[in-house]
Amino acid sequence: MPIQSGTHLGPYEILYFAGSFDRAFEQLNKTLELAPQNPQALALLADAYACSGETEKATEKCLQALASAPGVTFIRGNVAATYAKIGKIAEARTIVEGAEKAWKPGDGSAFWIAAAQARLGEKDAAFEWLERAFQERTFFLVHFKVHHLFDTLHGDPRFDDLVKRIGIPD
Q: What are the C-alpha distances in Å from 79 to residues 111, 121, 161, 163, 166?
């Protein structure tokens, strides 16, 4: 079954966005029991581990996600964002550069490339990629305001402008 950039995993998202990482782990692990090589579940679990400070587990899940979906641009962007979160800056930069080169309009990866750039502290690049995601009407933007990937962009007037243009209520 092909990976679709607009799929989602249900309760995990609510728990993750609320910062309830322990419960998010449970939900994602249930997903992985049914589909052990699901690259999106692996990448999202990696990021939840990163947000909770569990860098070893985050790294393990990143490697599994990359192995289960070699060349899938939005998975690579997600993994790069996670690596940036856990301080693996060189690895994050290498992966995001590859994702940028492989990017194709409409594949959903502009959002994830923006996330990696945001976590790397490259705000201008993050907003450039977010603008691409916006122009493509990328599904993932519905989570933009609450997604931990973009915490470093809060307070920037471009963040508030994009939230308004997306149509996310206050």
A: 13, 16, 27, 24, 25
